[in-house]
Amino acid sequence: MPRHSRLPRLRSTGLALVVVASAFALTGCTEPAPDAGPSTPASDAPVESDGAVATPEPTPAEKPVPFEVDCDALLSADDLYAYNPNYGQAPDFEPAAAGVVGVADEAGTTCGLLNQTSGTLIEFGVATPPPGALESRKNAAALGSKPVPTYGTPPEIEGYFAATSEGGEAQVFTGEYWVVVSSTDFIEPGDPQAIVAAIVANLSEAS
Predict the structure, then answer these.
(1) φ, ψ for residue 180 (rounded to 5)?
(2) d(CA 198, CA 207)
(3) pLDDT score, position 58
(4) How far apart are CA 183 and CA 173, in angstroms?
(5) What is the distance between the alpha carbons of residues 174 and 101, in angstroms, rounded to a whole number?
(6) Could you tell me which residues come within 8 angstroms of residue 156 by beta carbon, excluding any fewer than 6 positions away?
(7) How far is CA 64 from CA 44, 80, 169, 178, 194, in A?
(8) Distance between CA atoms of 99 and 182, rounded to whole angstroms?
(9) How far is residue 128's CA from residue 180's CA, in Å, rounded to a whole number?
């Protein structure tokens, strides 16, 4: 009987053993990845600041500067007679015109004149607002009224007039004073001219 050779099978078996041994050798040389340790969960707690946040101090509001004077000192009986002898002091007067109400808000003096014939009312008042408020009143007059040079010479005297459906209103700024004269009878800047001039002159004498 012919003899079969076993060399091919042995060679194949030996090659397989070499491959397996190489695989074990490579596995033994591989280093394990370092342990990163337990993960720390993110905290949802707010982070507190060591330093306190400074809060700016609010700017204190300017307080009105009271200006109290008799109405006769602002507009004398002679001034009133020269303007119109039919006018006299209005009893139980309460300011209603916007500008004169503003004078009252600034702690100023407000006065009323009543025409004994027609019943027409003239309101006027004088205040001494603090610097910031006075500047605001000037700006409002400049924006809402027309300048009137005949009331006085700027910058010593700044005069304005505004006509509305409810009448007219004159405003004058001289030094620390804010003067307002208002009436339903005032249509043009010249209508309150005599009263404005008398009040400004009396204020100048009193200063």
Answers:
(1) -130, 135
(2) 14
(3) 53
(4) 19
(5) 19
(6) 174, 175
(7) 52, 29, 22, 13, 28
(8) 8
(9) 12
Cα 140 to Cα 62, 102, 115, 150: the distances in Å are 18, 12, 30, 20
Helix, strand, coil shares, percent, the chain, to 5 = 35, 20, 45
Confidence class for position 60, pLDDT limits 50, 70, 90 = low
Could you tell me the pTM of the whole model?
Answer: 0.71
Work out the number of other CB atoms within 10 angstroms of the CB of residue 204.
13
**87-89 and 109-115 beta bridge pairing:** antiparallel
Helix (H) or strand (E) holding 163: strand 157-164
Amino acid at 55: T
Question: Average pLDDT in the 154-159 region?
Answer: 94
Place of tokens 């990163």: 36
Q: d(Cα 196, Cα 171) in Å, to the nearest integer?
A: 9
The pLDDT of 9-24, averaged and rounded, is 37
The per-residue pLDDT for 165 is: 78
**Beta strand ranges found along 32-106 (DSSP E):** 87-89
Q: Distance (Å, rounded) from C-alpha 108 to C-alpha 129? A: 8
